[in-house]
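Hi V.,

You were right to ask for the full record rather than a summary. Here it is.
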Amino acid sequence: MSLNDPMKNSWLIGALILGIGMVPGFLDLRRIHERRQENAALVAHGKHSENSSDRRGENPAGRERPPRYRSSPDQDPLQEILRISRALDEPDGTNNAGESAALIEMLSQLDVESLRQIFSALSREESISAPTRRSVIAFTLMALADMRPETVLALAADGAVEETGAVPLALGNLAKKNPQAAMAWLQANARLNGPDLNHAKRSMLAAVASNDPAHALQMMDDLGFKPGDGGIEMIATAAGESPDKRTAVLEAMRTWLAKLPENQRAQQTNTALAAIARNLHDEDFDSVTGWIEDVDLTAAEIGSFADGLSYMETKDETGEWIEWLGKNADSTASAGAVTDLMGEWTRQDYQAAGRWLAKAPAGPAKEQAVGAYAEAVAEYDPQVAVQWAMTLPQGERRTRALANIHANWPDNDKTGAAEFAQRHGIPVNPPEE
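Predicted structure:
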């Protein structure tokens, strides 16, 4: 395959994307990861092109392409990786995305032994700084983990490369097409992962869940996940792929939850539903609430789901969400979610939040929102906060709101805070001597 071929494989597109993450002096892996996330749609398009080629018989589905060694003297992989590394080591060193793609194309066609020799030579090359050597190796392994996960795992198994974060990625990619092989590698080589062992396990769960969430849930025991270890949260990431995938995740979780001991079921249900809500990814209010109605969540389950909602997702629809929760969710279960959503909305845009609050229908959700609004705005305008708090019915909620206002009173108004506390009977700790 030529670099000029318009039907580039997904791994080559991925390499181009990764190349954008190269910065003067070294390869910024954080930016590489961000670029990979931002360009997920482009990678998916490349995979579609690759699958089209596979169907024509060029490559059996689910198998690595057989490595081909490039022996052309003007395209020697070792010399290319050394040249690029030296260029990056210059004070104003930069790298071209096309060169990165060409290098990854060459390296992706080498066998394990050839790659082992190249990484060994690069790691010993004293004319290149240690940070640059490590960054180039890390960049290459991360790219190869997408394209040929078995190769990266073979290199890691015999200690040919240091741990770079590529092992969890490779395990996840292998688990997506062959969970049994990924599990076997992990069991045979767990000692190599050290502190990244849990990262590798989570990567595997997320990958398997994308294809078969029920299987991923069964794998949690084999991988040693216990309640609170984050296994459910990783499986729920698959719910963000589409509403249909979210339904598949929910159905698998419901079956799994039904088999748990009763004393564990409530907490795990809350964890599962909140985790699904944290993976909405820019879906609008009508779409998500329509889905909730389609899958028939109970009022208590909606409250658990709401625990995972974030203002970063609800944004301009936060008011609609709070009203909807007031009508459909268990008020006790959703109280924390309403408080968090309203509080963050107020901090981000207190005027819009206040306008909505003035028109919102009466009820427990509005009362919860009033308390959150008053607490958040107290730091900037305590008098407005007090006015809102006094609209609450006499009782525990108003008392709590007034106490929170006092706790958030501006630091530069000690006299005002003391007078407010005295007027409303709020106990104040004596100042420390």
